[in-house]
Amino acid sequence: MGLALTPPGAAKTVRLGVVGTGGRGTSLLQIAASLPGVEFPALCDINPQHLARAQDVAVTAGRSKPEGYTSEEDYRRLMAREDLDGVLIATPWEWHTPMAVYSMQAGKYTGVEVPAALTIEQCWDLVNTQERTGTPCMMLENWSFRRDNLAVLNMIRAGLLGEINHCHCAHSHDCTYWYFDPDGNPRWPAAYLMKRNADQYPTHSLGPVISWLDLNCGDYPAYLTSTATRSISLPHYFARKFGPEHPAARRKYAQADIVTSVVKTVKGNTIVINNDMQSPRPYDNRWEISGTEGLYNEQRNAVYIAGVSPKPDTWEPFPPYQQKFDHHWYAELERADPGLLRKPLAHGGPDYVEIRLFIEAIRNRTATPLDIYDSVLMCAVIPLSEQSIAQSSAPAPFPDFTRGRWRNRKPYFGVPA
Predict the structure, then answer these.
(1) 167/131 Cα distance (integer angstroms)
(2) Domains of the chain, start order
(3) Quick one: DSSP state of residue 282?
(4) pLDDT, tens digit, 9 for 90 and up, residues 391-401
(5) 17, 32, 75, 134: least buried by Cβ within 10 Å?
(6) Cα distance between residue 209 and residue 379, in whole Å
(7) pTM confidence score
(8) pLDDT by residue (tens digit) across 357-405?
(9) CA distances from 290 to 213, 220, 403 (A)
(10) Torsions phi, psi for 276 (to 5 deg)
(11) Measured between alpha carbons, how far is 72 from 143 in angstroms, rounded to an integer?
């Protein structure tokens, strides 16, 4: 799939609605508003200040002021509008699946933030609704669209690493500030730490891994086992900051500090997934992909390829490989606008690429760049890891969301048209 760059005024306008205009929703709106031929008839948020700010973003970008919806069920009214082609959903997690299902039922292309689903039942709801309605839906997993990860994908497809057999990935990021305000009071995501013990945020880890390992396209995860540490980092953090008697330091948290999951695929490959979001640590994804001819390591920003790397048993820098195997999505953007990717884009560019591809799919009535089967496969790790942890790390089998089609499906993600 090419990026299909559309010059201003050259193609039909895409009419986009946004549900949830907090920090993330507003960031997505800003990206969409920077693109040619995109209008915003309506926006929705239960916080009037967030909604007004988002309306100002649209107006500042030269669009008409979007109509605003503010009650909790108003998203249904927005999605029922006939002047919308697509919807972006960036609300608290519990709303993602019901909103995405309603959006597909209303015939709107749907982009839903991570995680798209929290339970196996919700995964099936998304799959069944898309198959029944024929309306495309994708999870907005931006790390699938990182420039480095896409270059690694090209290296794998070129056979540089040989036959792939193992991958490590992680979401290691101290997100205490996101779960709690500066005084230690819970924000909405904190409720999940108090009631659930799982890998609750696996999609950033798995985003590139799905395509690196051809999962859903010739291979499929058979089962996972998950093991959790104690839950001690948050009480220590709050005791350090406020004293041991502070309510946040005495609060009970179900969520372990670190969850380690191991996936075994039908083909016999393995994936290690780490979730570590409460420990005091710098951000780290720890991607490593290994094959019969070599491997790539994101932490070292390095590769080693047997018979190619200059020194035996010695890493060599990855940047020359990234340049050589640069993905066509980024190459097309650089040709069209040489200075674009040097601008301060959100997360360095993948959000821009992802939203632009989503909008071009709407415009051309084509498949979304990331499909529903990959989207729910990433999300399934949440309930399966919870199940495995609760059963003393017993294996938890993956449902087959493709109903067997993974055996014959061809790789599609990032493949040139």
Answers:
(1) 31
(2) 147-326+371-407 (3.30.360.10)
(3) -
(4) 999 999 999 99
(5) 134
(6) 13
(7) 0.96
(8) 999 999 999 999 999 999 999 999 999 999 999 999 999 999 999 999 9
(9) 10, 18, 29
(10) -150, 90
(11) 30
